[in-house]
Amino acid sequence: MNFFSFHLMPWPHLAPPREFLAENEAAWVTLSNANYDPARGKELYDRYISELVVAEELGLDGVVVNEHHQNAYGLMPSPNLVAAALTRETSRVKICVLGNALPLYNPPTRVAEEMAMLDVMSGGRLIAGLVVGGGPEYYSTNVNPTDARPRFREAVDLVIQAWTRPGPFAFDGEFYQLPYVNPWPRPLQQPHPPVWIPGLGSPSTITYCVEHGFGYMGVAYYAPPETFARQAVAYHDAVAASGRTFDPELLGWLTTVYVAETDEQAVEEAAAHLAYFQGTLAAGFVGPGKVWMPPGYIDPPALVQFLADLRGMVQGPRPTDAAAAVWKRSPLIGSPATVRERLLTYVNELGLGTVLALLQFGSLPADLTARSTHLYATEVVPYVREHAENHFATKGWA
After folding, report:
1. Which residues, including other chains, have CB under 8 Å from residue 186's CB and lie 6 or more apart?
2. CA distance 350 to 280
3. Measured between alpha carbons, how far is 159 from 185 in angstroms, rounded to an integer?
């Protein structure tokens, strides 16, 4: 079992959802950067990096940063810069960049170079997240979204070759033609750092990860946990069809976590900040509007499933109380006992070997983030780790 602290580094100073949406179409692409205050931004970077560093002090296995552009949802247009700072502030935890959006880089050998630097600087602690990038990024960079998937896969091939094949050599692809591929430095981990790819459940992405031995990290904090459960089942099916041995560490779940002394306290403290995260920062992102999914960006089967998940969030009987409403989408909001039992159930039933916990979300302030992170790391993680590893042993999983 591996437990990672995931951070989006959001901007917490916009209006609440109803007020925000009355005046803005989204927190992405078109929200004026006049709303950004650099002085406050400096304070946030200091705070957010410290929240990642504390993961090592509390015994978690790794930290995760990621890339977004021109938005208030995540203030890391270059997660590699944050990862570089973390190489100096930590000594043990894995550092996962999840990831660099390969189709936005021309040429993507820049990613191979920077990630090799991070691997060497960290002493071989890098996990290389290679991603397609979110739909809004294609508006922000004016990259053709219909080329996103084939461009991404060609770029992955180029990056892996750059790490593993002695240079210089020529690469002649459909999208990238380079007469000299010869990056310095080379990564410390051989043949290359572990590769993780996040996904929304696209069958082709899941199969691609299995075929290449890459980790599949299911991104489903926008929807109820059964959304990720479907992804996990599809991953197990793909592993079985491939004839490979199942490795739990290659199946991960990114989910929101908030822990307080009681369930009631956790729901009360988290609710407004979850609403800000889901209703303000994700406005125009979690939905079928123009910002989230430019035409041609997502495979048709994945689009059908994504829209079904969204319908499932709003259809059916409404929860009868606040706790039920929160737990419908974010079941790991609660007391240590509630969170660990629920998490252990998902881990055991789905064969889940990697948990990426979004421990700060939306406008959640520093004091609540710190207390929840401490409770999660000391009262949830050790319990789940022990019981899950015993369960995995009975299954014969590595």
Report:
1. 116, 163
2. 31
3. 13
* Three-class SS state of 217: strand
Mean of all residue pLDDT scores within the chain: 92
What are the tens digits of pLDDT across the range 2-43? 999 999 999 999 999 999 999 998 999 999 999 999 999 999
Asked if 135 contacts 297 with a C-beta cutoff of 8 angstroms, the reply is yes
Q: What residue type is 252 in one-letter code? A: G
Place of tokens 């079904």: 308
Give 56-86 pLDDT, tens digit per residue: 999 999 999 999 999 999 999 999 999 999 9
Closest CA to 10 of 52, 44, 61: 44
The answer to whether 363 touches 9, Cβ cutoff 8 Å, is no
CA 199 – CA 303 distance, rounded (Å): 12
Record the pTM: 0.94
Rounded Cα distance between 203 and 256, Å, is 24
Give the span between the Cα atoms of 385 and 275, in whole angstroms. Answer: 30
Compute how many other C-beta atoms are within 10 angstroms of the C-beta atom of residue 244.
13
